[in-house]
Request: fold
Amino acid sequence: MSRKIVITGAGSGMGAAIAQMLKANGDQVFGIDLKNSDFSADLSTPEGRQKGVDASIAWANGQLDGLVLCAGLGSSVNPPSLIAKVNYFGATAFIDGLFDVLSKTKNSSAVVISSVAAAQPDMINLPILEEYAKHDEAKVCQLLDAQNIGHLAYASSKNALTRYVRSKSIPWGRAGVRINAVAPGAIQTPLLQAGMDDPKYGEAIRKFVPPLGRVGEVDEVAKLVKFLLSSDAGYISGTMLFIDGGMDAMIRPNSF
Ligand code: NAD
Reply:
């Protein structure tokens, strides 16, 4: 029987590449996005998240082998609260909402797309991370819009998301379900292009070249996600794998 996998953000970039690669592998895929996918849902709102989770559960019909969370927004999006709504609250709603059906399926797992920005040294002890941990969406959004720094919204949303993945890996692991985060560096997608073209952040993003000297390709991320969903990765859980051309090692050589 073929595997059944739900992918958010399947309409573009990494999510689309992952969906294509998994379908070519013989998997059944249910893509969720604002548009260009199997099911349309706006993950920035509680209603849209619920709609997406309910549709996924109905599609799974008791069998869900994999969950891949790619839907996300970059630093240049306004207002900054929208970034947290999609990147953190949109993703955690799927993590929570689909655990039950994942746990009923043998050898199931989830892969959550975080970012190399999650591990930025100045992200570690930010007070806003406590508000994310309390799941206080209104408070997180209020703080982010008051500070009005897109990069802070982006990096904090991904740091909080990785913390969430790691915390869930303990009860999930006990239930036999693996969950991991993937931390891409600069990957050629419309999201990266929007960042590079941004008048405020563009120059910094363009100048931030990893040791391997190039941006990554969506298929490189898709291959890693495919591996993490497979039985070859059967003992990998609760971790964050960087796929960043060496960028994290360049920024934080002594942290691992
Ligand atoms: P992308 O823009 O090509 O794809 C992101 C998808 O998320 C889009 O299809 C978009 O419609 C969807 N999305 C956005 N808001 C949504 C909403 N409210 N409801 C439902 N869907 C929504 O970008 P990408 O680069 O492929 O991004 C995939 C993930 O990778 C994101 O979480 C992003 O933060 C992360 N990421 C990207 C890079 C990079 O350099 N491209 C680096 C690190 C992490």
Remarks:
- The mean pLDDT is 96.
